[in-house]
Amino acid sequence: GEEIKVTLRNQMEEETTVHWHGVLVPSNADGGPHQVVNPGAERDVKFNVKQEAATLWYHPHTMGKTAEQVYGGLAGFILLKDDNELSQGLPGEYGVDDVPLVVQDRSFTQDMQFDFPGSYNADGTLGDTLLVNGTIHAAFDVTTELLRLRLLNGSNARIYDFELSDGRPFLQIASDGGLLNEPVKMQSVRLTPGERAEIIVSLKGMNQGEYLDLTSGNTTVLRLNVAGVLKPNGNVPVTLNQLAAAADNGTVDRRFVLFGMGAMVSINGDVFDMKRVDETGIANQDEIWEIYNRPDMMGGMVHSFHLHGTQFRVLTREGVLPPLNERGWKDTVALDSGERVRILVRFVEPGLFMYHCHILEHEDNGMMGQIEITAK
């Protein structure tokens, strides 16, 4: 319900945009490649919050420059709250038991600057150093029994499988666009670029001086240090949200084929053209989209499909229901090579919206299209 007013002031020497990833905004505020802010210029953006509590973010969407500008640090969190979330008794004290974590990999030059040119890869630039909220070897002093971590994969291309070092499970309570209907017990959660997950970690019974690591593979992401006698801070409710089951009539209204690697990438055989409208649709109408990650002769790779202007529901993966932690609101979905995913889509706002691979180098290389939504 809140009205948001933001002034975007570009103090760089190149044009940029600000895209509100996961936020339901009018297309003229979306910050896609059409809406650049030139060097030295500024642009006012205004929108109303029309969605439930969620962990969202913003980043550039400049044509051909998104990967480099995000790598350089142009990104940040947007945290939405609502009455339902606040009534749940979930950990919610910012920086104490409710901690946003953006995880990114970077490489550095000899003078300790981000080395995007030296690390660039057309299939996704990978770094040799892990950063959490911009920090190397990140650690956090825990003071409560329950800790809420808002995980964001803000990397250009790297995929993370988050788990706890001693093998204990955690509860996932939210996906990209808001709370799940109920907590899902997880041993690990995979996030591709752009995806988010909120998890609750229990440190009950741990003593001062002990620690627990959040890891991905063999890499420590965040060390959780027990800073004293842990304070009780509630329990996780059995029911978190009241999302209706996603209606699936078995039809497919649109099909999208993701194909290629490196500089040779496409959606439905086309490379992005800002002057071309690829799809048209009508607001407030349910559609089922099928996305297929077509393998190539080399076997293909994982693609991360992101849709602007809406939150969607995942209906099926390879014809079967998705895992429980993917049954809430999503705006970004991972597809393994050869995998088909069906999603339920509804646009509320008319306008022009983007869909693309969220491996940022693929986006820059044209693995992107646009859909124009009309009121009728």
Question: Can you tell me about this structure?
Answer:
By secondary structure, the protein is mostly beta strands. The chain is built from 4 helices and 28 strands. The strands form 6 sheets. It has a 7-stranded mixed β-sheet, with no helix packed on it. It is globular and about 60 Å long. The model has no long low-confidence stretch (mean pLDDT 97).
Task: Lay out the secondary structure.
Layout: E1 3-9, E2 19-21, E3 42-48, E4 54-59, H1 66-71, E5 76-80, H2 83-86, E6 98-106, H3 116-119, E7 129-132, E8 135-136, E9 139-144, E10 146-153, E11 160-164, E12 170-175, E13 178-186, E14 188-191, E15 196-202, E16 211-216, E17 219-231, E18 254-261, E19 264-267, E20 279-282, E21 287-294, E22 303-307, E23 312-317, E24 329-330, E25 332-335, E26 340-345, E27 351-357, H4 360-364, E28 368-374
Parallel strand pairs: 6-10, 9-17, 18-21, 20-28
Antiparallel strand pairs: 1-3, 2-4, 4-5, 6-7, 7-8, 10-15, 11-14, 11-16, 12-13, 12-15, 16-17, 18-19, 21-26, 22-25, 22-27, 23-24, 23-26, 27-28
Task: List its salient traits.
single chain, 376 residues, mainly beta, 7-stranded mixed beta sheet, 6-stranded mixed beta sheet, 4 helices, 28 strands, globular
Count of DSSP strands: 28
Envelope shape: globular
**Gyration radius, to the nearest Å?**
20 Å
Helix content: under 10%
Look at the structure and give the mean pLDDT. 97
User: How is the main sheet built?
Assistant: 7 strands, mixed
Structural class: mainly beta
- In DSSP terms, counting alpha (H) and pi (I) runs of 4 or more, how many helices? 4
> How widely separated are the two ends?
25 Å
Task: Please indicate the percent range of residues in DSSP E strands (runs of 2 or more).
Answer: 35-45%
pLDDT < 50 runs, ≥5 residues: none
Widest beta sheet: strand line-up = 8-7-6-10-15-12-13
